[in-house]
Amino acid sequence: MPAVVVSGSGDNPEYEGRTTIYVIVCVTIAAFGGLMFGYDIGISGGVTSMDDFLKKFFPTVYERKQQAHENNYCKYDDQHLQLFTSSLYLAALVASFVASKVCSKSGRKPTMQIASVFFLAGVFLTAGGLTIEMIIIGRILLGCGVGFANQAVPLFLSEIAPAKMRGALNISFQLFITIGIFVANMVNYVTSQIHPNGWRISLAIAGIPALMLCFGSLLICETPTSLIERNKVEKGRKVLRKIRGVENVDDEFDSIVDACEMARQVKHPFRKLMKPASRPPLVIAILLQVFQQFTGINAIMFYAPVLFQTVGFGNDAALLSSVITGVVNVLSTVVSVYAVDKAGRRILLLEACVQMFISQSIIGVVLLKDLKTTGDNLGKGEATFVVILVCLFVMGFAWSWGPLGWLIPSETFPLETRTAGFAFAVSSNMLFTFVIAQAFLSMLCHMQAGIFFFFAAWIVIMGLFTWFLLPETKGVPVDSMVDRVWKQHWFWSSFMYDDEYKADVKVV
Predict the structure, then answer these.
(1) Radius of gyration of the chain (CA)
(2) Backbone angles phi, psi at 502, to 5 degrees
(3) Residue 16: enclosing H or E segment and its boundaries?
(4) How far apart are the C-alpha atoms of 190 and 212, rounded to whole Å?
(5) Comparing 421 with 370, which gets the higher pLDDT?
(6) Where are the domains of the chain?
(7) What is the pLDDT of residues 49-82, one digit of tens each?
(8) Cα 335 from Cα 352, distance rounded (Å)
(9) Pairing verdict, β 15-18 and 3-6
């Protein structure tokens, strides 16, 4: 493959290397952590709309669903049903902080292996669940797996990738999430025809990506940064040569060593995160996760079959419509893989805000006008129009806020606060995913069509945030973020000169 030269500025050297086949293999295996996460996102909504599942665990919801004159917006409003979905994300929130410590002390690779073990245990309990307590405990174990995987995988991808390919390779995590969602929708469409245990098959198949990550991770290397950080210096140099495909890695190696030496001086990374100089990447990392959830994407992905049933599709048609949105999600994420290192991060985010705002607003208008609280659903043409608008919304999200919400935090923290800072990003994502998952069906019941205007208003705020406060990080080596990004920004530069910050901090 052609050589990739990672350019620096000022005193930062240029790092020579190429994107090797081994790096591609490592990236692919690690990205199965995203497949685990995506499959779970996609499978939950389909399972919770299956009659067999509802009859066994949520009979009151099933009875309400069968009523002749049910409330079109409230048929699935049940806190326990929402807890089945959302409990995973509450567990992931807590697990991400534990995973941060494991990631620092033991490395990115063991953290991914632990994630797969948690996930397999969760799959066993949910697929074999006999009581609501069993499946909730299973969901909590799945959440621990998600917390560990989402902590380790994006960091692994950013640290192993050459700078000019960092965006595309890191987005493979999000690409696999979208593939997982699509596969889950396909599985649900098939298993909904299998009675009475089709839902068990749907939940059990989640074990396949977990097994792939568990055994595949035996074949991949640890990142050079993690090895050097844990005093395995010569092994780190050897791995760096292997993943760059060249012998001359001295400049990049020395940069990593310098950053690790500086990181070792920070005994309390979480405390350092509270310092003013750490505020720019921390605030941006947290807000990106909050905004990612308040686009409304997970509300749609969790409950797509439920949403499409609400607007007039039957059960099978609703699941099929979810498959369609899954295809759009995957293909649009591929667009991001191609565009992120060419067009940049900011332009993708801003364009998507316009596209998502228009889609959400029109969906709200259509439902407000034509979907009454009780009585007939939307006509076939209007319901199809809603599906098209949902696809346009998913398209915009999939090439912007979805992948970049993970990419930008993984590339902007200095080494001494990287795992701690990314733990805040992961936990913030899980917290607000939990909030949306737990509240969406109740919000749909009480706000009705207004819920889409609620999310549209948040998208306006996101656009303003991106325009004024989010710097461009395209093509900037991670060891140059401070000098080339934060110190040059009209607002964030004011945080970079406190007494405890050293101007020559390098990041790897």
Answers:
(1) 23
(2) -100, 125
(3) strand 15-18
(4) 23
(5) 421
(6) 18-495
(7) 788 998 888 888 788 767 645 565 666 556 677 7
(8) 13
(9) antiparallel
Quote the tokens at residue 72.
Answer: 């079109």
Q: Which CATH superfamily is domain 18-495 in?
A: MFS general substrate transporter like domains (1.20.1250.20)
Torsion sign (Cα): 301, 305, 306, 311:
positive
Task: Assess contact for 49 and 193: CB atoms under 8 A.
Answer: no
Q: Cβ(123)–Cβ(43) under 8 Å?
A: no
d(CA 54, CA 76): 10
**Average predicted confidence (pLDDT) for the chain:** 83
Asked if residues 397 and 500 have their Cβ atoms less than 8 Å apart, the reply is: no
- Both tokens assigned to 106: 């033991």
Q: Cβ contacts of residue 250 below 8 Å, gap of 6+?
A: none
Q: Which residues of 187-203 are buried (b: 16+ CB within 10 A; e: fewer)?
A: bbbebbeeeeebbbebb
Query: For residue range 225-251, what is the model confidence (pLDDT) as tens digits?
Result: 999 989 999 999 999 999 888 888 888
Read off the tokens for 263.
């990181």
Q: What angle do CA 119, 125, 128 make, to 5 degrees?
A: 130
Contact 150, 36 (CB under 8 A): no
Residue whose C-alpha is closest to residue 307's, from 390, 426, 396, 206: 390
CB 141 within 8 A of CB 125: yes
**CA dihedral for 135, 141, 144, 150, sign (positive or negative):** negative
Record the tokens describing residue 64, joined without a space. 């309400």
**C-alpha 348, offset from chain centre:** 17
499 has a pLDDT exceeding 50: no
Given a contact cutoff of 8 angstroms between Cβ atoms, the answer to whether 474 and 345 are in contact is yes
Nearest to 443 by CA among 430, 452, 433: 452
